[in-house]
């Protein structure tokens, strides 16, 4: 029961101000920032700009970060993402929108 009192008496504003909910692990050093920009530039040379590839810079940066700036695995995941998007677009265009015509109720 004492834990409940501690939680109930906790000042949430103080906890949020102290960044208690932040893991603090996503801060980029200047070296990582340089790697990110270099990797983004190299990937854009390969897959093209956003209009050609259909992928914006944020997606590329997130995958680069998750893959520790490994260009081979990042490109592989980006190609998979392009395929997923193309498949979803094709599926969306194949089927007519779901529509049920209104029917008057019949009387017996």
List strands and helices in order, with pairings:
Blueprint: H1 2-8, H2 12-17, H3 30-47, H4 50-53, H5 57-66, H6 71-94
Helix pairs in contact: 3-5, 5-6
Description:
It is a single chain. It is built from six helices and no strands. It has helices spanning 2-8, 12-17, 30-47, 50-53, 57-66, 71-94. Helix 3 packs across helix 5 (57-66). It is flat. The model has no long low-confidence stretch (mean pLDDT 82).
Summed up:
This protein is mostly helical. The protein is 64% helix and 0% strand.
Regions with little confidence, pLDDT below 50 for 5+ residues: none
How many beta-strand runs?
A: 0
Strand percent estimate: under 5%
Gross morphology is flat
What class, by secondary structure content? mainly alpha
Return Rg in Å.
25 Å
Question: In sequence order, what are the helices and strands, one letter per element?
Answer: HHHHHH
Report the helical percentage: 55-70%
Report, as a whole number of angstroms, the end-to-end distance.
65 Å
Main β sheet profile: none
Mean pLDDT: 82
Total helical elements: 6
List keywords for this structure.
mainly alpha, 6 helices, single chain
